[in-house]
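User: Can you fold this complex?
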Amino acid sequence: MSNRNTAGLTAAARALASRTLTVAAVALLLIASVYAQNDARAIVEEAQRRAESKSQRYEGLLQVVDSKGKVADKRWLFTRLGSHGRSKSVLRFVAPAEVKGVALLIVNHPDRASDQWMWTPALQRERRIALQDRSTRFFGTDFSFEDLEERDVNQYEYRLLGEQAIDGAACWHIESTPAKRKISQYSKSQVWIRKDNHALAQVESYIKTDVVRRLKYSDFVEVQGIWTGRRMEMHDLRRNSRTILALDKLEYNVPLKEEDFTLQGLQNPL
Amino acid sequence: MRVVFLLLAFAASASAQDFTYRGFGEVRAAVYPQTTPQDDDRVAVEARFRVEPAFKPADWLTLAGSVDARLDNLEQVEREWRLDVGDRRLRRPALSLRQGVATVRKGTVAIDIGKQFIRWGKADILNPTDRFAPRDFLEVTDDEFLAVTGVRARYERGPYSLDAAWVPVFTPSRTPLVGRRWVPLPPETFGTTGFVDLPAVFPDRSQYGARWNVLAPGFEFSLSYFDGFNHLPQFTAQPLSGRPLVALQRTFAPLRMAGGDAAVPLRWFSVKGEIASWFTTSDQADDVVLYVVQLERQTGELSLVGGYAGEVVTERRSAFAFAPDRGLTRAFLGRAGYTINATKDIAFEAAVRQNLDGVWLEGQYSEALDGHWRVTVTGVVIGGDEDDFIGQYQRNSHLIGTLRYSF
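Assistant: Here's the predicted assembly.
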């Protein structure tokens, strides 16, 4: 009887201990997950803080390489006023000749998807890019209209997946998922941020479980205190084509006028 | 030609950031498998050279121009090499100042002075509110916009913008040449052996207009008002005494327009709409309400636009007018485009009258051969009833090949 009681107590104690351990493990996982989320968010916030500037200007040299290896060159002028979430950008093609003058105005918002308009000189009209258009490739490049938006830290939720080296540089490996209010073609992204300078090293964008685009940064330089990858290679994995964008004459905090970032300004050829 | 040299001289003295230019040279050949009762020509070839320089001599001033030079085999282009500025002649000028505008910008205000394009409306295939936009309709289905001469002030503050235009010089739309295939009626229709084109009677007063546009979060709309003239002519036909000829004269009906347009981008498609009510004091033109409703959807590299253009005649008066804008109403309109890759794309457009009396279909394949050369092949099929605006061109189905060098 006594042995049976002792055995019963031991079994109960084991069950209790097992439950306690399970609860503790779940709690630890939850705590770890919260810390991981907090850590990931803090890393992205810091990366955003370090990349902050009042304005930016560069000349973009693009090489679009299709799946058969055929190369098409393009060139654009990019200007941005403001930073992350509240910025406005104008991207104006200067080559090839047949798209010269075509321009895109992007007005970013902290709480929703950006507004975008395209100006086509041949039509003498600006055209609003519809929300669902943003998965479309931008003028035959491998960047979609959405890829040209500036990502704001508050539009995504984050999870630290670990650490991984990209091109020999130690990076934080973070998963970002669009917040509910953010309309995105991507269901999630995996982001690699360099530990030495908090610059973006790589972004993989997913639709459901498949990686559809991979953006890789290289040729890092510090320009006016901001570490920037001056070479970006966007690989469209579904089409097996890639676009290499090299940033030339990159400048930050240049004086730019607010009126150049309006529909009126978009029509200005210079 | 002096204008071109002047602009090039400006270019030489300006820094790269203050000066830019673009342009092209192209050869375009249209082949018509069928002749028409009044026109045996089957091949129309036109060569065109365009240069569009822009110069910014001061931070507040931009000068932009566009000059066209043309040559053709069917004399739809004039043979006289003088620089045309007014765009009022029946034929295309051999040399024309297509655009010449000075833009003065100060803060949120921009003033454009000179010959310029003023485009209103948000729909794609038909824009009933686009009243400062005459066109070259020498080939009705392959039209091109013409600029107007005047002053336009634009004010933009936050999501609001106001656009006001004053156009003291009237620019008409260029209509098909009498006796050519795009005027489908042979002289016998009028019991005569031919036509005499009398000089057009142009309006002698200015045109005005204003448009208020709002970019609200997630949608945009505008309201517009126009007081001027229809850039599409009405024709009066009078027999010439003692001769078996009819004299045709173009006049332009006074027109007031009140309209609006809106675009609402939704998650799965965008809705665009445009409506305009036209009033006239002419006893030979109709009062009408024209409207367009269209849905637009982009799926990857495929873009789709489909809609309906409608017309309500609020007061009918007899008229003999050339009115392609009204001719495209009471019709279903559609456009599909697909980007095959970085250098190739295809597109299809269609207009089908709701009673099926007129059908216009266009397919286009375009390929960039490199950064400068592009070849485009366009096929146009037109069918329907002779009494229908579209259907009357049933013998004008054609194939166009274009080779363009852009610089």
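Chain B touches chain A through 54 residues (CB under 8 Å). The helical segments of chain B are 2-13, 324-327.
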